Please model this.
Amino acid sequence: MQCCASVSMSSGSRRASRFLQEKEDEVPQWIPGLGTDKPRPRTLGTSFFGYVPDAFVEKTPFLPSEKKATTPTPKDSETKEAEHKSEGAPNGQYLDPSSSKEFQRDMDASSDEGVVTEEVVVPQRVERRAAEPWDAQSVDSTDGAHEAACSVVSTALSSATDILHGRGSDGVRSAQNRLLIKGGRVVNDDMMQDADVYIEDGIIKQVGTNLHTPGGTRVVEAKGHLVMPGGIDTHTHMQLPFMGTFAVDDFYTGTRAALAGGTTMIMDFAIPQKGESLVEAYHRWRSWADPKVCCDYALHVGVTWWCDKVGKEMEELTEEHGINSFKMFMAYKDTWQLDDHDLLESFKQCKEIGALAQVHAENGDIIKENTAKLLDMGITGPEGHELSRPEEVEAEATNRACVLANQVGCPLYVVHVMSKSAADVVSNKRRQGHIVFGEPIAASLGTDGTHYYHKCWRHAAAHVMGPPLRPDCETPKYLMDLLANGDLQTTGTDNCTFSASQKALGKDDFTKIPNGVNGVEDRMSVIWEKGVVSGKIDPCKFVAVTSTNAAKIFNIYPKKGRIAVGSDADIVVWNPHATRTISAKTHYQAVDFNIFEGMEVHGIADYVICHGRVVVEEGNVRAVSGMGKFVPTPSHSPYVYGRVQERDIANAPKKVDRAPYDGPVIQLNNQGLTQAVESSIIPTNQEFYTRGPTRCGGLNLHDSSFHVSGRQIDDDIRPRTSIKLLSPCNGTSLGAQMNDKSPKRPSVKVHNPPGGKASGSFW
Ligand code: URP
Ligand code: ZN
Ligand code: ZN
Model:
């Protein structure tokens, strides 16, 4: 139950689709804030195919499992949460929510039926660009002009792209779903184009105008809408076992809610306990997710402890299980936190295997220290959470992670960037040439940490997450500006939801409040509202930060993150004009609170297409558990590792070639202390240069200019009649002659060293 009167709640029905069936000549202003790329009328392009009169008939078949799909009501989730409550486990122990009866979903995802209609004729091949390293997976040109010109594309590419996109080898072909998204504006990260999109078997087959489509094609009218790649949420924790309980949104409710908001893929974290096998954790997460997910998902894997075996498992996960990112924790002392040594080891291993190192950047030692002080002071409420980990605690760890990663040449990805100063660290390091990426989340872009000071405990506790939201209403705008200028790249949610009764584990002690907030359902709308409607980003940038950049960084582009031939048909048909009011009363998530409660947002996912199936229709979700697939993320993403090798070569330390030192070397006694060098008169100046050169190859200024024998360094040099001061002010050339070839040193000859007789040690 939402308890606080201070936030206004929407009484209107959720997701009221206000999409007007505009006539062709009434197409409204397309998108606000487009800058120079002003709305333009749809161009009726020409197509290789002619017009097919019966092509636009709604005949898309649906799977029996889709028809059967049951949609849990809010009541279901309440019951579920109540039952979960009794299943709490202590820290360090994992729970298997899938073993709970109430979590068993209809896993029927069979896809062995459908209407097979005639094959599309193969008209021509699309020219591909000359191969470049980062083109390895390209199936289309990323050049907008080229793409626009290719209004007709060939299905001949489909078998090739099936292979490129990792499909086909299992021979499983889903029903011949045929879908035409008609009359919308296709938005990619680098271009917008008025075009229809034709989909078959879950893959985009044609993008263009006046497309020829076969009979049995269902049409989604997209006039007045933007047709964008489905969102990729880079950071979720569905049913995470955490702080004695587990997140209430599981892989079913969480991914279903994701679809409702226009997100068609999530990236979750398999997190082993200290000492536990990473591979086992991975398999456990797969066993939880596979039967439940309604949309595609990938996994990052946590590194919560270090030994050689962990390094080997990282390699195995990368090579055999499709994992290309590992999250290291700099907080959660005594459970998941790694010290600097272990961070360095894990970074080195990430680099070795071509994976991306991710960090939760907060200084866990400082947090522990501060927490004890606050509890001593009697501060036990949720504000203590924020007070114990102020902004600089995040910024320090962010900086340290950047330095450590850079020192071993490992690309770094900072998850949940929550503060201005942590974001500044990422920006500045990027300016210094570090390979570092930053991920703000829906929460940090859409709300702030003033809520920790709310009088209602439940309200304040609902916002507890780590790193905390910042009690500064400028932070969300600041982070959005950095997304706009490219200093930050992706957006996740850190969706990790706990209902009131779970949060209440910490009613007397803020350190026991399970950390986490919602976001997976509302991320797209919140970013649209705070980014596009505010004029900070345009729709192309919206696509970049909600999907494309993630697809590139995690090496699944252009399978994901692009509307192009050969890409997965994961598409959101976005109504930029419609509005809705976010509320826990109407959201799909299982959690009983929404941190964006009362926020009115423009931008609604009227239709969401996942694997070519319409899973959201005019705001209504028709998702099926198990319908999503695990998406392997290959190592060595060219967008991450593309410049690492050259950078290593360019920055490699260079040895100075010089003649070896062949003079005397002092002897150390067994305490490591210097002993006097006993020797007779040595007839060369070498005797004076006992310390060897400095690291830069210069003369060591600690060399003595006299010798125990009483000889002085320039005894062999003819006495000069005059001293020429070349730089008298800084003294660097004192005593040197212009053509003097003898070693130069800024020291003065001492005939009578302090202490009288030379002792043999330095002074
Ligand atoms: O509060 C948070 N962030 N909960 C999830 C675990 C994590 O650190 O990402
Ligand atoms: Zn974290
Ligand atoms: Zn997280």
About this structure: Residues 360, 415-416 surround zinc ion (ligand 2) (CB under 6 Å). The chain is about 25% helix and 15% strand. The mean pLDDT is 75.
